[in-house]
């Protein structure tokens, strides 16, 4: 009788444990993101989409994430006739808090920790091992870690291995595997672009060639591209990029702060404590169906240069 009671009790406990396991499995079966109002199936560490259409729909939702608009500013040319659009700030949405750690999340964590590794003996090797899912080209003296996917929003849907399940098949969507791709994307700079610091003379147009100070590098590119936010047909982007030189003279990416101002009396914007690239974005203004030129004199400051470099502003013109 005692054995029967113990057996029944054991079965009851086993059933309770099984129910707990089922609940755990069920809770891990999908992620729900309130910002995007989207639910995505998940199998262990991988997101699952029934079709490529569903996958593309998730990317579209990330691309169309609500933008925060900064306070209006006058046109860059200070003309009262033309008031240009506000600076756009697209939220950096992640599914990490929803229970999915993406390849993009690993990259962001790596950038936040980079200085703790690159500036001490043996640190780079530890960093590379810990974040082996990233791309380390080790080209020349560029030892930075790069996101191995061209589109950040795609990377937000991939696991650490760059994989996602679509229509029952596991596919790997890593699409960066050469240094030339990084150069073509403007993410990596070349030694040939190095120049003497520019201040108030000979302002370059639509770019700031690389300048160096305090073991840091800074350069700026610009581009006009199709809008990715709701109601924005075209985006104007000022892309501020930087690197820091670590132990043994190797360059790496890390988190820092930059400032962009429209001279002489325009507003100053900033992007703080974020790894390169810093994207300053504006929605193109159209009048009578024609784009209004985005023109003016800009200055950029970089926290990494600091007092050692005199807090210098670097100037360039935009005409986009």
Structural Rg: 24 Å
Structure classification: alpha+beta
Beta percentage is 25-35%
Helix proportion range: 10-25%
**Number of strand segments:** 18
Number of helices: 6
| Major beta sheet summary | 7 strands, antiparallel
Distance between the amino and carboxyl termini = 88 Å
What do these coordinates show?
The protein is α+β, with helices and mostly antiparallel strands and 320 residues long. 22% of the residues lie in helices and 31% in strands. It contains 6 helices and 18 strands. It has helices at residues 2-27, 52-63, 103-118, 123-130, 152-155, 179-184; strands spanning 30-33, 38-43, 46-49, 68-69, 87-89, 163-166, 169-172, 207-213, 216-226, 234-245, 251-252, 255-263, 268-275, 278-283, 286-287, 290-291, 295-302, 314-319. The strands form 4 sheets. Strands 4, 5, 8, 9, 10, 11 and 14 form a 7-stranded antiparallel beta sheet that branches. Strands 1-2-3-6-7 form a 5-stranded mixed beta sheet, with helices on one face. Helix 3 (103-118) runs antiparallel to helix 4 (123-130). The longest helix is centred in the N-terminal third of the chain and has 26 residues, at 2-27. It is globular, with a radius of gyration of 24 Å. Residues 1-27, 71-75 and 77-82 have low confidence and may be disordered.
């Amino acid at each position: 009788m005692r054995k029967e009671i113990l057996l029944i009790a054991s079965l009851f406990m086993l059933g309770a444990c099984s129910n707990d396991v089922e609940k755990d499995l069920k809770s891990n079966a999908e992620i729900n993101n309130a910002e995007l109002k989207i639910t995505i199936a998940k199998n262990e560490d991988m997101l699952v989409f029934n079709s490529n259409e569903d996958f593309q729909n998730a990317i579209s939702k990330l691309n169309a994430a609500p933008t925060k608009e900064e306070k209006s500013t006058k046109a860059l040319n200070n003309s009262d006739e033309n008031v240009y659009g506000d600076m756009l700030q697209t939220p950096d949405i992640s599914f990490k808090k929803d229970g999915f750690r993406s390849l993009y999340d690993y990259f962001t964590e790596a950038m936040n920790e980079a200085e703790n590794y690159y500036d001490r003996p043996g640190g780079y090797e530890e960093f590379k091992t810990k974040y082996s899912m990233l791309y380390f080209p080790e080209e020349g003296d560029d030892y930075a870690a790069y996101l191995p996917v061209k589109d950040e929003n795609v990377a937000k849907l991939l696991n650490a291995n760059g994989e996602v399940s679509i229509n029952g098949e596991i596919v790997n969507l890593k699409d960066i595997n050469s240094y030339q791709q990084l150069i073509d994307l403007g993410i990596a700079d070349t030694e040939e672009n190095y120049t003497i610091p520019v201040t108030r003379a000979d302002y370059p147009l639509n770019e700031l060639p690389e300048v160096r100070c305090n073991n840091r590098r800074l350069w700026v590119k610009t581009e006009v591209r199709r809008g990715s936010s709701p109601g924005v047909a075209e985006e104007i982007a000022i892309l501020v990029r930087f690197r820091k030189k670590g132990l043994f003279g190797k360059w790496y990416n890390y988190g820092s702060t930059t400032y962009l101002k429209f001279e002489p009396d325009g507003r100053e914007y900033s992007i703080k404590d974020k790894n390169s690239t810093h994207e300053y974005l504006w929605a193109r203004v159209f009048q009578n169906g024609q784009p209004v030129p985005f023109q003016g004199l800009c200055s950029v400051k970089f926290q990494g240069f600091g007092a050692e470099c005199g807090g210098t502003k670097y100037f360039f013109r935009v005409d986009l």
